UniProtKB/TrEMBL annotation, chain A:
Coiled coil: none annotated. The keyword Protein transport applies. This is Tom37 C-terminal domain-containing protein. Residues 220-279 form the Metaxin glutathione S-transferase domain. Residues 395-415 are annotated as: Disordered. It comes from the Eukaryota. Residues 21-145 form the Mitochondrial outer membrane transport complex Sam37/metaxin N-terminal domain. Keywords: Membrane, Mitochondrion, Mitochondrion outer membrane, Protein transport, Transport. The lineage of its organism: Eukaryota, Fungi, Dikarya, Ascomycota, Pezizomycotina. CDD domains: GST_N_Metaxin1_like (cd03078). The keyword Membrane applies. It holds the Pfam family Tom37. Transmembrane segments: none annotated.
UniProtKB/TrEMBL annotation, chain B:
It comes from Aspergillus lucknowensis. Residues 229-295 form the Metaxin glutathione S-transferase domain. Residues 1-21 are annotated as: Disordered. InterPro entries: Metaxin_GST, Mito_Protein_Transport_Metaxin, SAM35, Thioredoxin-like_fold. This is Mitochondrial outer membrane protein. Coiled coil: none annotated. PANTHER family: METAXIN RELATED, OUTER MEMBRANE PROTEIN (SAM35), PUTATIVE (AFU_ORTHOLOGUE AFUA_1G13180)-RELATED. Residues 82-178 form the Thioredoxin-like fold domain. CDD domains: GST_C_Metaxin, GST_N_Metaxin1_like.
Length: 415, 299
């Protein structure tokens, strides 16, 4: 059986545009013999039942996320395909802790660099997605990913890297000044920040903050690497190396208009940068987008062209995104999805949990229906009342004549 | 006839033009019965509320505002919120005296608990928010900044701040049994007696927890959350080894406080957990349990 690894497609001359996918590809190319796996740049999370990529497909079994896939590979091969098998207890603990550290800290920096920094997003990331996604996903998915990245980095308070947020803030200040009446309307000059002046300004403003953030990530990793050939031991690569190369190559490799992350990485962690560069050349080579869509080819990775989207899939994507954008429908759909997850056999929930979760989803669903019914009832009552008091009458035209006769009588007392 | 005066004087001669404005006026104005209802408001204007009674006016010490109940705060019992407990424990470990004040997020200047009102300098009312608390404590008692001593401090802390915290969020807020038995009792019921407000608060809390978990993944995989928590406990147990405190320090410090904040609340029978998978995962590690018991003696 050939294992199929479904990932986000290539971008920035890396085999995938997503860090978790890159890490999983690294894990596969280190461990799984050629010929027993293929790489599919499907770039569509809806193909996997968990709506996530990377996803491993083996017959009818789907496994998603780096950690779960690594676990599955170990079970599938009876312990043979396991990069962390010969680690000592302390190294194992380090592997777990540093993995969590890299996943949390590096993801935030990549979000900031590729998505939140507007110049990079609109000039590099968004076009990169455009070239790997099929219609209509190229219009649907990138804004979703953009919004998710913004949500993840909100708490850092670095929103002025984001031009849209800056503009909104300016508009708010502007309207507050007007409403406060401090400035006469005519005297207010529209803030005339050109894109370039804003972009030129923001990196310096946040230099200190970004310096601290990158230092927090790269410092411990650089120290852990030391003079070793791999992060944990001299003996060979571990899953931590895969994660590190996955996340950090997205920091190091992309050619961006505002390459602050790469500059800071090269400056703060020269040995780590060399290590990542060496490992990613070894594992990924240089990938062109066209490699992923041509079977075989001359790439070191076992690409298999993804299936063209069928009309039904396109239709369902369109319908789904429309439905998810409609307020009440969205709630209903979310509850249905939650219930389906809870009731499906392979959700990993105990029976009790899945029962309580599905009961919860059903109750939520009833709540939504109840609120719709309340609103409809309220509107009907209002319309009924208006008809009753005569604010408007259904037979307005028919009564017209009758009214005219009466008008002469009723208006007399007013004079 | 054509003059204004005549027109106003004999309205019945222009019935058509009189009628039209009246119809539009009817349509846009508030119907009389509704207007009468609105005229009744405000029904009653209450006198302004008194300022909240300060229950700790005579104390002169540092005051730490945490999630707690009045009785627990008086006796200095551990807070039921991991973040609050972490700082409560840390300040205790390094020997800073303080009073506990039960509070909630709305009372905090930064929007999160805990925060601290220092006793010195006298007359100051500048609160110390969460992110400045360690700096303040170091200046107070001149202890070392532990982050600098070991490169693994921040790294292992990320296990607690991400993996264990995510499992905790699921465990407390999204597991319906636990939410009804624990979170409802601790966070929702003390704020109000009104059942409508309670149910709204509950759903807001659960939604906030769900949003937090969905930030890092597209769906909430309970199995994965618990597996990651299990891995984290394994790693922390290995890190502690046979030492009394983390990083083999003579006295407990910030890292011990961070671990204790979760291990204590997971193992505490008084929390009244209905579903406690985390306890099963944690009880495999004898040294973490002993570590918690040792530190509990401080309270």
């Amino acid at each position: 059986m050939v294992l199929e690894l479904h990932v986000w497609g290539p971008g920035f001359s890396l085999p995938s545009i997503d860090a978790q996918c890159l890490a999983t590809i690294a894990y596969f190319s280190l461990l799984v013999p050629k010929g027993s796996w293929t790489l599919v740049a499907s770039s569509d999370p809806t193909i996997s039942p968990t709506q996530e990529l990377p996803a491993l497909k083996n017959g009818s079994i789907w496994v998603s996320r780096f950690r779960n896939i690594a676990d599955y590979l170990r079970q599938y091969s009876n312990g043979e395909w396991d990069l962390d098998g010969d680690l000592t207890a302390l190294e194992k603990a380090d592997s777990v802790a540093f993995s969590s550290f890299v996943e949390s800290r590096a993801q935030v920096l990549i979000d900031l660099s590729l998505y939140v920094t507007s110049g990079n997003y609109y000039n590099s990331t968004s076009p990169a997605y455009g070239s790997i996604l099929q219609w209509p996903n190229q219009w649907v998915l990138p804004p979703q990913l953009h919004a998710a990245a913004k949500a993840r980095t909100e708490s850092l308070g670095l929103s002025s890297l984001d031009l849209e947020a800056v503009r909104e803030q300016q508009k708010r200040e502007h309207s507050t000044a007007v409403t406060a009446g401090r400035i006469p309307q005519n005297f207010i000059r529209r803030p005339r920040d050109t894109v370039s002046s804003l972009l030129g300004k923001t990196p310096q403003q946040h230099q200190f903050r970004l310096d601290a953030l990158t230092g927090d990530l790269f410092g411990p990793l650089e120290e852990l690497l030391g003079d070793k050939t791999h992060l944990l031991s001299e003996r060979g690569p571990s899953s931590l190396d895969c994660l590190a190369v996955g996340y950090l190559s997205l920091a190091l490799v992309p050619e961006l208009p505002h390459a602050w992350l790469r500059d800071l990485m090269l400056r703060k962690a020269p040995r780590l940068s060399q290590f990542v560069e060496r490992l990613r050349r070894e594992l990924y080579g240089t990938v062109n987008v066209s490699d992923a869509f041509a079977n075989g080819g001359n790439s070191p990775l076992p690409w298999r062209a993804p299936e063209r989207a069928r009309l039904a899939t396109i239709g369902s994507t369109l319908l789904n995104s429309l439905a998810d954008a409609t307020p009440i429908l969205k709630d209903i759909r979310m509850n249905n999805r939650l219930r389906e997850t809870a009731e499906s056999a392979d959700s990993g929930l105990s029976e009790l949990e899945s029962r309580s979760l599905s009961a919860y989803a059903q109750a939520q669903g009833r709540d939504t229906l109840l609120s719709i019914a309340t609103v409809v009832g309220g509107l009907t009552a209002l319309a009924g009342y208006m008809v009753h008091v005569g604010a408007f009458s259904p037979q307005d035209v028919g009564e017209h004549k009758h009214d005219e006769h009466e008008a002469s009588e009723t208006t007399i007392p007013e004079s | 006839m054509t003059s204004d005066h005549d027109g106003r004087g004999i309205p019945e001669q222009r019935p058509e033009s009189r009628r039209e404005p009246r119809r539009t006026w009817d349509f846009f104005s508030v119907p009389a019965p509704v207007k009468r209802v609105f005229d009744c408001f405000p029904l009653l204007t209450y006198p302004p509320n008194d300022l909240p009674q300060c229950t700790w006016p005579t104390r002169r010490g540092n005051r730490l505002f945490v999630f707690s109940d009045a009785a627990g705060a008086q006796r200095g019992r551990p807070s039921f919120n991991p973040q609050c407990l972490k700082w409560q424990a840390y300040l205790k470990f390094i020997g800073i005296e303080f009073e506990l004040v039960p509070s909630n997020n709305h009372a905090s200047p930064s929007g999160v608990l805990p925060f601290l009102l220092p006793a010195l300098p006298v007359g100051t009312s500048t609160p110390i928010p969460l992110n400045k608390m360690q700096k303040w404590a170091i200046e107070e008692v001149h202890c070392e900044e532990e982050q600098q001593l070991d490169l693994r401090f921040e790294v292992y802390l990320s296990l607690l701040d991400n993996r264990v915290r995510n499992a905790w969020l699921y465990h407390l807020y999204l597991n319906q049994e636990n939410f009804d038995a624990v979170a409802q009792r601790l966070y929702v019921d003390p704020s109000t007696n009104n059942s409508t407000v309670r149910s709204i608060l509950s759903s807001q809390l659960q939604q906030a927890a769900r949003d937090e978990l969905l930030k890092s993944s597209s769906y909430i995989d309970v199995g994965a959350l618990e597996a990651e928590a299990a891995e984290s406990f394994d790693a922390l147990s290995t890190l502690l080894g046979d030492n009394t405190h983390f990083f083999d320090r003579p006295n407990p410090g910030l890292f011990d406080a961070s671990v204790f904040a979760y291990t204590h609340l997971i193992l505490d029978q008084k929390m009244g957990w209905r579903y406690n998978r985390l306890e099963k995962l944690l009880s495999r590690h004898e040294n973490l349990i002993k570590h918690r018991e040792r530190l509990l003696k401080f309270f």
